[in-house]
């Protein structure tokens, strides 16, 4: 039995490999919901959906998220009306958001809705949101963003003409940072709004307390794993069993394979490297799996108090994802 | 200058004819919003959309509502997840609902959003919702509905297995009655929830007080025109100028051309005929335009206190809709 703390695309690929390497029913994914947002009235859970679509064999292989072969007729119509279409929701993908939003409005918990979606998509892995309570990752920008300079940026939620200028130190939502601003702005802090008052979703602590091994997927340690660890009880439980917690570094040779993990680490004062990842996660895990490209940093990882395991971590094919999972299972 | 009180499909066809017969910019449509509903978190305004799509040359000609050539990929995905897909929302149509819901969440009024959508669709007629406040048409059923007998009926909003049985005298929303139950159940009363506390949308009373003529479109007098008249101030204003208010009967030879207007009139104790329509609207209009099929009822209409105008009212083609509009303009 194994539990995996998950962000989005990297975690989904690792879970696919793990499903090939072991019995999926023995795997529980505990997924970041700090990226969740409400757009046009719809409740969007990007990481949960990326994982469900990937494990349900529906994911768009070109992007790693969204639905393969999806169309964007609703988005095109929204755009023609002058609506905000920077967050692209495919037509088939919209079915998921409509379902989730309707069920939540009926009073179902996010855990229950997630289980329903996973079952409908034929997913064998158990998928749990980190919490049924709203936790929102907010990003504090180091410098202002001026939409008069970059007219594609409208952080005011208003229409053209009444766009405020984000000031220095402005706090924006995760999706504003990640999608609308293409994570191309400098960050001074990351906050997890609502985390202090959130509870782990039903099953999360039971699973984390009882499985043989906990894996921290190769996801952004700051904005994907960070929110999960911010939910009270989870980091404490992992600390107490850190000898059986294995993380996979999402940083290879100083660079994030995807997304802004490298820049975020540096901007928050951590080294942008496997050593920075080790230092960031040292309290909750005892082993860090790093790529062969980083074998020369193993001593520094050990000096930070973690065991270093070196292997090929770049999941370019399903076979390599499976091979990585097998190494992790043998840790 | 002319104002038209409107429901959905029949009103939209009449407005098309009126746009051919006169300058569209002189026409204001005041539209029923009692049918509005929130589904899957999205704010749906069926009558406003039918009118905007029709006047914007986008309507599905086979149904009279929805968008021509629309696809239903989101609905198919929703259905595959086990969601409630009895209210069919096309993918392009969803763009409108996403836009409206997003704008309302930003604090825009329904009037403003309606104007934005109409402008984007190139509609020349001014479209006003009857109110920016929520008014909801509820239907009291004469008998219970038993989903164990008709498994397509689930009025509980829950999932299969926990479906309550609607009891005698159950009140359901308009869309539950109209779409989910296919208006095939007997009605004992119609209620307009929120109407007493609602205000006419900005411009409605000004328009109704200043135009040369007010037309009541050939829409269901009970559930399409009824909600508009239930908004405080509107019926009073029309009563004071009833000599210049002209209604077009949606009942021809005792039958509704579309929908349940005939049965509803009968169920609520009114005659299912042009005479019943005349009696139902006598307080607010002085002239009733009826079809040649009903020329033999003209005396009874006059006895009810309305002038009867007989013409061909069945708008089978754009030309006939235009001809009807010309008769109404000459009333």
> CATH homologous superfamily of the largest domain in chain A - what is it?
CofD-like domains
Q: Which descriptor suits the 3D outline of chain A?
A: globular
End-to-end Cα distance of chain A: 14 Å
CATH class of the largest domain in chain A: Alpha Beta
Name the features:
homodimer; 331 residues; alpha/beta; Helicase, Ruva Protein, domain 3; Rossmann fold; three-stranded antiparallel beta sheet
Structure description:
Two copies of one chain form a homodimer. Chain A has 331 residues and is an alpha/beta fold. Chain A folds into three domains: 103 residues, CofD-like domain (Helicase, Ruva Protein, domain 3); 58 residues, no CATH class; 127 residues, 3-Layer(aba) Sandwich (Rossmann fold), CATH 3.40.50. Chain A has 13 helices and 14 strands. A seven-stranded parallel sheet of chain A has the order 5-2-1-9-10-13-14, sandwiched between helices. The two termini of chain A are 14 Å apart. At the A-B interface, α3, α4 and α5 of A face α3, α4 and α5 of B.
What is the gist of this entry?
Chain A has 331 residues and is α/β, with parallel strands linked by helices. The first copy, chain A, contains 13 helices and 14 strands. In chain A, helix 1 packs parallel to helix 2, helix 1 crosses helix 13 and helix 4 packs antiparallel against helix 5.
List the helices and strands and how they pair.
2 copies of one chain form a homodimer.
Chain A: E1 2-6, H1 9-21, E2 27-31, E3 37-39, E4 42-44, H2 46-55, H3 73-80, H4 91-105, H5 110-120, E5 126-129, E6 136-141, E7 171-173, H6 174-180, E8 187-193, H7 204-210, E9 213-216, H8 221-230, H9 234-240, E10 245-248, E11 251-252, E12 255-256, H10 261-267, H11 274-281, E13 287-291, H12 298-303, E14 307-311, H13 318-330
Parallel strand pairs in A: 1-2, 1-9, 2-5, 9-10, 10-13, 13-14
Antiparallel strand pairs in A: 3-4, 6-7, 6-8, 11-12
């Amino acid at each position: 039995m194994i539990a995996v703390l998950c962000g989005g695309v990297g975690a989904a690929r690792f879970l696919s490999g793990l499903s090939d390497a072991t019995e999926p029913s023995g795997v529980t994914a505990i997924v970041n919901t700090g990226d969740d947002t409400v757009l046009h009235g719809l409740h969007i859970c990007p990481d949960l959906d990326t994982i469900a679509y990937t494990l349900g064999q529906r994911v768009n292989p070109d992007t790693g998220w969204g639905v393969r072969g999806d169309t964007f007729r609703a988005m095109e119509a929204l755009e023609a009306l002058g609506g905000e279409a920077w967050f692209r929701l495919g037509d088939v993908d919209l079915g998921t958001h409509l379902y989730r939003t309707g069920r939540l409005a009926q009073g179902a918990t996010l855990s229950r809705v997630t289980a329903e979606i996973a079952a409908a998509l034929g997913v064998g892995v158990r998928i749990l949101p980190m919490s049924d309570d709203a936790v929102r990752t907010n990003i504090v920008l180091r410098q202002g963003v001026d939409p008069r300079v970059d007219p594609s940026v409208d952080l005011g939620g208003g229409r053209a003409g009444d766009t405020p200028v984000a000031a220095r130190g402005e706090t924006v939502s995760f999706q504003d940072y990640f999608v609308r601003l293409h994570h191309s702005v400098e960050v001074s802090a990351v906050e997890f709004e609502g985390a202090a008052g959130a509870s782990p979703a039903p099953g999360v602590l039971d699973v984390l307390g009882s499985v043989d091994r906990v894996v921290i997927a190769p996801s952004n340690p700051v904005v994907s794993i960070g929110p999960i660890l911010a939910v009270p009880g989870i980091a404490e439980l992992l600390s107490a069993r850190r000898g059986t917690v294995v993380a996979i570094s999402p940083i290879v040779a100083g660079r994030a394979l995807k997304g802004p993990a490298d820049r975020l680490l540096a901007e928050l004062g951590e080294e942008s490297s496997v050593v920075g990842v080790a230092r960031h996660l040292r309290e909750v895990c005892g082993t860090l799996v790093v790529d062969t490209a980083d074998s020369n940093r193993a001593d520094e990882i050990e000096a930070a108090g973690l065991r270093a395991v070196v292997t090929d971590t770049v999941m370019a094919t399903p076979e390599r994802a499976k091979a990585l999972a097998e190494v992790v299972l043998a840790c």
